[in-house]
Amino acid sequence: MKELTQYDIDERLESLITRAWHDKMQHFPAIDAPDVMHLLNQVGGQAASSSRGGKRLRALLLHNTVATFTPDNSPAKHSDEIIDLGCAIEIFQTAALIHDDIIDAADTRRGQPSAHRALSQFTQNADQGSGLALMLGDLLATLSIRTAHTSSSVLAHSSDIFHAFLDMHDQVELGQIMDISMESLDLTHTDELHSSIRATYINKTASYTTIAPLFMGMLASGHPQAATLARSFAHSVGEKLGIAFQIHDDLLDLMSTPQKTGKPVGGDIREAKRTWVLSHALRLTQPSDRAFLIDAYMRETRSEQDVEQIRSLFISCGAIEASITDVENLWTHAAQEILAACMSMNVSAQDTQNFISFCSRFVG
């Protein structure tokens, strides 16, 4: 199977979204309303715009999993469909991020105006812009399912792959509900908070970032052991790798720059997100600092002074360092499990090392 790059995914993803929107417009009932058609075209353009800028790690993970576990004596098959299946995950992510930005009232995404902000600016109406973005997210979620269904139909274990894609949808949506529900949690119950954060990270992030690509990729490889090993491998490795990925993302939000992340530093604090770092901080801070954190996170808004004070607390109490250690430990265990799976499935030493090296991109 030929090596795939981020730019290959970018090109195919834009083609799938643009073609799908063009097909919808071709079959759209003719109406004599130029303003409406102009707005529809603007929404279609936003679909392509919102999909740009990602690293395509999910699509690349699926492709690398297929390449790693396809038996050496088996010819490469259905490479275009495997690319499209990876693109289906990326399309779903775009839909999820559009909805996420509406929920969080986020102004930017990947260095550009978020979809609802861009459409609000175009229409000069915030409610209309948010409504259009909401429906755009729904349309892209549907497109992701259509793309997954078409691409998986020719692959090994096609039915299992497609149902895994649908399960992924459910998990992310439940994870989003859990994320919103955590806003009402009592922050004095640190064990309950940490357990809820872990479950949310698995459902909202790991489910589609690592678990689904690993599971679908191993099934699509056609390896004779895939049917019996894929699920346990994907969940065990994918949970660890996905949680580590989300913690790393939380740390970037605190310690990186807007130029690197495409969004303001400290956004999770401004939005009072219940994060892994916060969970550590509530356990590690002194009582007076803990009381300040709880009060700040339960308030409707936090000032810029609050944001800086909380960031400083996260550093001084050791929450940042503890989270970095967690990422390192999760990655170590995930890498060991990848190595064991590759050995049991007779993957060559070089292919094993290449796969582990690729997976390390999720944590740094």
From TrEMBL:
Pfam families: polyprenyl_synt
Necessary cofactors: Mg(2+)
GO molecular function, a single term: metal ion binding
Entry protein name: Polyprenyl synthetase family protein
Keywords of the record: Magnesium, Metal-binding, Transferase
InterPro entries: Isoprenoid_synthase_dom_sf, Polyprenyl_synt, Polyprenyl_synt_CS
UniProt keyword annotation of Acetylation present: no
Family indicated by similarity: Belongs to the FPP/GGPP synthase family.
